[in-house]
Design brief:
The protein is mostly beta strands and 499 residues long. The protein is 10% helix and 45% strand. It contains 5 helices and 24 strands. The chain has helices spanning 2-31, 98-103, 110-115, 146-149, 177-181, and strands at residues 57-59, 66-68, 118-119, 128-141, 160-172, 186-195, 206-220, 223-235, 255-270, 273-285, 296-309, 317-318, 328-340, 343-346, 349-352, 357-369, 374-385, 391-392, 408-409, 417-428, 432-443, 452-461, 466-475, 479-491. The chain has an 8-stranded antiparallel β-barrel. It has an 8-stranded antiparallel barrel with strand order 13-16-17-20-21-22-23-24. It has a two-stranded antiparallel ribbon with strand order 1-2. It starts with a helix and ends in an 8-residue tail after the last strand.
């Protein structure tokens, strides 16, 4: 049966490739030429420097003008520009500024911003290029739990997953400021259907997710190495049930988060069509909001075909002066809360608590902006964890008596509060910012709060300075801790508003 499925998948991919080649041949026959090398976004037209851009612009809260989302630094070499302001094609991607990128200085200088040629974001045809795509993923389920290794109702290992994705996205117009500085960034929403080969115990969940990706490197005029991440929710799981689904100790809830990241090769075989293939790592879990929560992880391939709607030609370039990017410090204030489940160790056993415990906290983080796409700093992290240092006691049941079950006891409030310090780094793109942190609790009463913790978070920009925060905190890189759902505000952001 598995061989038949793979045969059908291979036949489908061969058919898609055949269609791609036919479309490419037809387009070249119609136009008589092959379009020249594309811009930084991967489109067609003369290449442009990636050192200048602006953020996506929205109306400001006071109505006085546009407000943009947060920015970060360009970490790529800047193409050489000759005296006339045109790209030195002989220099390619390694112009005179390559030493700066090699030295790891993540910034865009003021001189580059004021002397480069930039293109107008406004113009005929609109600001965005819309994208429709389909994707197929065969994935290997990593055997991280006995249930997946064969301790399930089928008696066989649950080893393979497959999924089909339908996606809508958009990217900025080739030649626009955003396209230059964010290296062809694209974002959108996707819907997928997963099958794990055990519908009765796991289900065939549906995933709805946000995605964003962009170019890492240009390997050829129409071939790029790209990254992409997805984050969303999955619905329709068959979770653990003590009576009807006792073996499934992997997924404990009907709704689980889905997070994946990967790299891929993107081949633009025609001006409006591209074919992508790469590897992807996916994680499903409920963030420790319900037990059991062992989670499910996969490693696999992704193959996708994307077509674009709207103008794909590059915008005309015009010379204009841009305000210099001045490095500065901004201050992020975040308030978050969530709930979590926990287990308590007793005589070498883990006893699951039936309660859901509240979690609340704050972060105060001075962040130094190195450039449009990168910030780093230190955060003061305060937390109240209602599950910290919860304990239980063994008990004796009389012969013939009723077993009351374990009773869980909460310690004093001071043993559930902690204050920590963490190093933070932020990678800033249009609409989304990825925040990572490594920290240690420095003020606490010991026990569960004596921790080395890690944070991975997604900030979703709402206005120029405010954002929604969806994050997760781990301990020692592997122990689940708690979700961080909240809202934040950035004070003192002096990133230029550039269009």
């Amino acid at each position: 049966m598995m061989c038949g499925r793979w045969s059908r998948a291979v036949a489908t991919l061969v058919a898609v490739l055949s269609v791609c080649v036919a479309l490419r041949a037809q387009e070249e026959a119609v136009h008589g030429v092959v379009a020249p090398e594309g811009p930084a976004s991967g489109g067609f037209g003369p290449a442009v420097p990636s050192s200048v851009a602006s953020a996506p612009v929205f109306p400001s809260s006071d109505g006085s003008g546009p407000a943009s989302l947060s920015f970060g630094v360009s970490v790529s070499p800047v193409p050489a520009i000759d005296g006339s302001g045109t790209r030195d094609r002989d220099a390619g991607e390694s112009g005179p500024d390559r030493s700066r990128a090699a030295d790891g200085v993540f910034a865009v200088s003021a001189s580059e911003l004021t002397s480069s040629e930039v293109s107008a974001s406004a113009g005929s045809g609109g600001r965005f290029v819309h994208r429709i795509g389909v994707e197929f993923r065969p994935e290997r389920i990593l055997p991280t739990h006995d249930f997946l290794r064969g301790a399930n109702g089928t008696g066989h290992a649950i080893a393979w997953a497959r999924s089909v994705h339908l996606r809508y996205g958009f990217r900025f117009r080739p030649g626009s400021s955003e396209d230059w500085i964010y290296r062809g960034v694209r974002q959108g929403i996707g819907v997928a259907r997963y099958a794990f080969g055990d519908k009765r115990e796991l289900g065939d969940p549906v995933v709805v997710y946000l995605f964003q990706g962009g170019r890492i490197a240009r390997l050829a005029p129409r071939l790029t190495l790209d990254y992409e991440w997805n984050f969303g929710l999955s619905f329709g799981w068959h979770p653990y049930d003590r009576r009807t689904n006792r073996c499934n100790l992997v997924m404990g809830s009907k709704i689980n988060a889905c997070l994946d990241a990967g790299v891929q090769l993107d081949w633009r075989f025609a001006p409006r069509f591209s074919l992508a293939a790469g590897i992807v790592v996916t994680h499903f879990s409920n963030g420790n909001t319900k037990l059991p929560n062992a989670g499910l992880n996969t490693l696999g391939l992704r193959v996708g075909l994307t077509g674009e709607l709207g103008p794909v030609e590059e915008l005309p370039a015009v010379r204009r002066a841009l305000p210099p990017f001045r490095r500065h410090v901004s201050y992020d204030v975040l308030l978050f809360g969530s709930w979590r489940r926990t287990g308590v160790a007793l005589d070498g056993r883990m006893i699951a608590s039936p309660e859901a415990y509240p979690v609340a906290g704050f972060n105060f983080a001075p962040m130094y902006a190195f450039g449009y796409r990168f910030r780093a700093g230190v955060s003061l992290d305060g937390v109240y964890d209602g599950s910290a240092n919860v304990y239980t006691k063994d008990y004796i049941v009389e012969i013939g008596g009723r077993d009351p079950g374990y009773t869980f006891y909460k310690p004093s409030l001071s043993r559930q509060l902690a204050l920590g310090l963490s190093a933070r780094a932020e990678f800033v793109m249009p609409y989304f910012t990825i925040n990572v942190g490594l920290g240690v609790n420095v003020l606490h009463k010991g026990g569960d709060l004596r921790a080395f913790y890690q944070i991975l978070a997604l900030k979703i920009g709402m206005t120029r300075s405010s954002y929604l925060h969806v994050g997760y905190c781990l301990k020692d890189f592997h122990m689940p801790n708690f979700l961080m759902l909240g809202a934040g505000y950035r004070f003192g952001d002096r990133t230029p508003r550039v269009r």
